[in-house]
Amino acid sequence: MSGAILLGSLLLLLLGALLYLWMGDEEEEEAEDPERLSARERLARWLSEWWARAREWHRRGERALRRRLAEADLPWRPVEFLGLILGTTALGAWIGLAIYRLPGLVLLSAAAGAALPLLFLRHRREARRHRLEGQLADALFLIAGILRTGGSLYRALEEAAGKLPPPLADEFRRVLIEVRLGFSLSEALEHMRTRVPSEELALALTAIQINQQVGGNLAEFLERVAMRIQERVYLQNEIRTLTAAYRLSAQILAALPLVLWLILFPLNRRYMMRFFTSGVAGYALLGLMLLLVLLGFLVIRRMTRLSV
């Protein structure tokens, strides 16, 4: 019912805007043909501007989503990932409608379904980045050793791509393929920096690019960078290990009240419906519960987040 009212209101607003643009000024009720044409031109210009903005937003969103999928190493196109989001959204809405039969909870279930692919994408990106950062120091030591024996940087990247495990080996293979396709080595490394959002990798690639511009002993430079990256990764892993229990506690404490509420609702519907039939007090209690859970989760997460 509320959805129908909202849709009707939007249609009335759109109709009023069109009538206003068509009629022009209120003082001239009987406008002549030239004024009507000018109103049509204003309407056409307004629609063309919004269409251009929508196309620009679409291009930016598609580029950003394609970059995220590449960072997660998922062989999907943006339209396929959006189709997955629509499917999980429809599944979540159907589950909410079948179990809870309340518009607000149906929307909440649909939002949870839409968030699942996004959370999966974020998890894949973070996991791949952590694995790559753990392999980066060994890769730089390997490249520096090949450079000390007189090999070129391209040859060192070939050896690293053949001896290292994924995902870093896959990124080096992409760099080699781009060089074979006609890109310079600096351009291929810059593309690698764009695909992998890692500070450690950006530091290593910046060191290589600076050395190519100013010259010097690249092997020694890479060994120093590798030692610094090794120390940073070690400290990050130590911090992650020491704070793992607190981060897990924050996630459990944040999810437990919501999960229990969603489980108890279909089991004792009459009791849980008091939140919605008690007027302002019930909604205020629900809002306070969500606020306190969110506040506690953010406080614990902030306490366990340390930068190296």
UniProtKB/TrEMBL annotation:
Q: Which residues form a coiled coil?
A: none
Q: Where is the signal peptide?
A: none
- Superkingdom is Bacteria
Q: Which residues cross the membrane?
A: 6-23, 102-121, 248-268, 280-300
Q: List, alphabetically, the Pfam families matched.
A: T2SSF
As for membrane topology, the entry says: Multi-pass membrane protein
Question: Where is it found, in Gene Ontology cellular component terms?
Answer: plasma membrane
InterPro entries xrefs: T2SS_GspF_dom, T2SS_GspF_sf
| Keywords of this entry | Cell membrane, Membrane, Transmembrane, Transmembrane helix
Cell compartments where the protein resides: Cell membrane
Q: Which residues form the Type II secretion system protein GspF domain?
A: 142-266
Name assigned to this protein: Tight adherence protein B
